[in-house]
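Obj.: predict assembly geometry.
Materials: sequence records (below).
Method: joint structure prediction, all chains together.
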Amino acid sequence: MAVMDRLRRVAATAPVAVSVALGHGADAVLADLRADARVDVTASPRHATVLVVAGHVPAAAVAALGRVHDQVPAPRATVVVDGDPARLDLPAATATTRAALVDELVRVHAAVVTGQRHDSPVGPADNPVDWQGIGPHGQGGEGMMGGVPWGRPMAMPPTVGRDGLALDRLALVVGPFLAVLPPMLEVEVGLQGDVLEEVELRTVPPDPHAPTPPPTPVDSGLVALAELLALVGLGALATTAARLARTPDRRVEDVAALRRRIDRPWGLRLGTDDLDRLDLPGVAPDPTDRWRDWLASAASTAVGDAHHAPEPVATDEVAAQLVGMEVGHAVLTLATLRPQLAASAVAPAVSS
Amino acid sequence: MTGLAVDIAFWTFAVAAAWFGWRVFRTDSMVRATFCLLASFLNVGAIMVLLLAEYLGVAMFFMMSVEMVVMAIFMVAFMMNPAGLNPMEMVHQPRAAIAVGIGAAVGLGVVAVVADLPPAALLDEAGTIRALGNELMGASMLLMEVVGVTLVATMVGAVVLSSASGRYGSADTGSVPPLLDPDDPDSRPDLVSADGEGDAHAGHGGHGGHGGHG
Amino acid sequence: MTGELAAPHPVLGAVVVLGVLLVGTAIVTTADAVVADRVARRGLDLRASLVRPWRRIALSLVRPQPATERPDWGLWVLAPAAYVGMAAMAVSVLPLGTDWAVADVRTGIVVLGSAEVLAMVAVYLHGWAPNSPLSLVGAYRFVAAGLSFLLLSMFVLIAAALPAESMSLGRIVASQQEGAWNVLRQPLGLPLFLVVALSVSLHGPLDMADGTDLATGTVAESSGPARLAWEFGRRAMLTAYALATAVVFLAGPAGPVLPGWAWLAVKTVAVAVVLVWCGHRLGRIGIQRYVRIAWTVLLPLSFLHLAISGVAALA
Amino acid sequence: MLGAFLAVVVATGTTMLLVGWLASWGRTPDPTEAHWSTTLPVLGGHEPRVHAWNRFHARYYPMALVLMAFEMEMMFMYPWAVVFVEVGGRALVEMGVFLALLSLGVLYLWREGGLSWQ
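Observations (raw structure tokens):
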């Protein structure tokens, strides 16, 4: 056991593996975490030790937050940034401020790894669907497709008559805390294979009486760029973009330098040039132009021009454009619409 | 490796091949069944290597792995309940299948025993690979080219039958799903076409307005 | 030189293969951390870059592997085992010194190809086993890529066999020492093979199975030692393919002054660093574009490569 | 020759056993014993409606079928490569014809749009 104790002591000094649950207006915290070498921002809660809840989480998303919380493997801990853990139904969570966040994370992480802290799961311990032992084979029903094995029905085709011609459609709701999606976005998809056949986008609006968040101290376009870079596997360049996003007096040369490093056919464009063009009002049709706009905006605010808030987009129009895309393409497309979607989460656009 | 070690290896691979072959029909999961079959083939390939047919054995590893991956894709695409979450019977007509299986095993065994096989191994120092290559470049050249033409026909056939897109538009343009009940014209299911439009309605004449979407 | 290789005892051979994979993984991991910090311009604290990955490994070892709702445990354990096993199979047939290999198999390049295809099976199973949608999509995406890069690797290895008049990797090295290195007389082969190496080892920009756009795809439900085993597999596979690249194109152990294994190590590390660097500077390509390019650009290129290599071998 | 294959099997088998042991470390064999809410697949907060194991409609099936035929013919090329220098220019021409035939199949696949997602 001495070996395990030794391992734990070393593990306690590792970068803190955090899963970030983003509410509204949390770009600053996300940029802080991406930019800091003491933190690894994970794409899946299964890889995390600590869950960070940042921004305003509406009451409608609290149940989903609980599920993400439970997906962090035990022992786990939660840190809530500038919020009230009790309101989020996470009584064991630690509350902290943005300024003290990373130090707090390092402390909490060490406590979790050395076995001094473990937040219990908040969801039910047993499957709410009663299935075991029901039916001739104990799969919760009769026939080849009728059961609910492990509490879940089989995927069914979208037709009434199952004649073997129509293929099953995998119906899923992903989000609002999936790290690969823009924050507070829920995507209801019907997947056939890896192609989206049916898409519905919903943003989770802020609670009616939520306090108005202060203006974000970071450049949202650059935060969106950092997320996009992370999505195409350029995590190291993402930290550069995040660092630039939170530099208050960034120089226009730094923005230009970042652009030179990523705006090349073999850079970020290898991932975005091939995305489908979009036909949306107020949005550049070309996917690569969308992130170039963020860089241009960051460059113009660096020389003192006023920041132009992104126009909200109508989520149903975006959804219509996603139909027929492959999953990876759809994720990247949504990432290129991150500022617009964040705007429409707060003030929904009316479909034209 | 000496004779005894080779014998031990042979029986190990032979039993493993048979056991994995049996597992194919005893598991509920299509993926498990497919890769049990692959494991069975890998053991047969190992036996071929033991028989000094080195290239054929290793080629068996290679080909069967690719083929089983493709088979897994199609098994999961076509089978309801591909993971066997709902328990089921993998075999149809088990009695007839057992009878045919025993018959085939006995028949092949008899052939192996009574056939006039060469009494000693034919050892080729340069390896069978070179001999195979010379054969392909020599007497069997024409045969190989004919196989090439046949396989091109296979490829074209596979594309014609499977591809949902094509030069002249979607392959299911104008197609109508069959009636679930032959006597009831209202039992026609909605067909969801490959590009995601569920626009055929029961009793309608099919996809009249297809192609209007971008 | 005949290309006949001596072999150690099989048990010693297994130890050597494991050692190569472990040392290679350590080097790739370190290179990855250093390159990442360089690309991120995170200051030049080399010590931090070197220490961080080992601490991450310690963290993985003390974390648990949670269950999913109804996983296929058997396949979930088999997948990383088989994936690393195939890296071991590839290493075992490659020459590791001037005149020895763990296994001097006459059909070396076919065994190498089989290892690649069986690795594809392992990745598919790794995505299938957890019964999770994102993992499943990752698995199928990788199979699409795998069925495309498979032909490229076959053509490249077959072209390397032409001047050697043999499928043995020992002979392929010997033929390069007699003639010119394959990187010179078969110039298209190296870039094509690097595409294969990145794809099969799930490294950026061609990591189709474990992409961050799918919340890390097949590995999204893994944690703790199981995830460590999988990440070890990815780096072990990168090691194996960097080694294969060094053997097939850079004449493996050939070189002056230094012993053969040292030359091989230098060349392998150089290839590995190039591959890791690509992962940090090139964005992940979309799967449809990958498949299209593989069949309409790279496949014709590999035909051309074969023709060039054939003419060069006869000249 | 068999000794070499024995070495391959021993090296592969040992590695698989060791990594399999690492990967199985600390697993809960029965998922019903785990706390249920921790077992939901990663979807960012929602419960899945159905199992992920469904009929997965891979969109590249024409490519997979064509590859099978292509790969079968490729197995002829390995022995061909071994005797290539010995046979000389004739081998080059013969394989050229063979590959030209094969490319017809791939060309047709591409022309029919079989390389794009169906």
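Conclusions so far: DSSP finds eleven helices and no strands in chain C.
To do: check interface contacts against the pulldown list.
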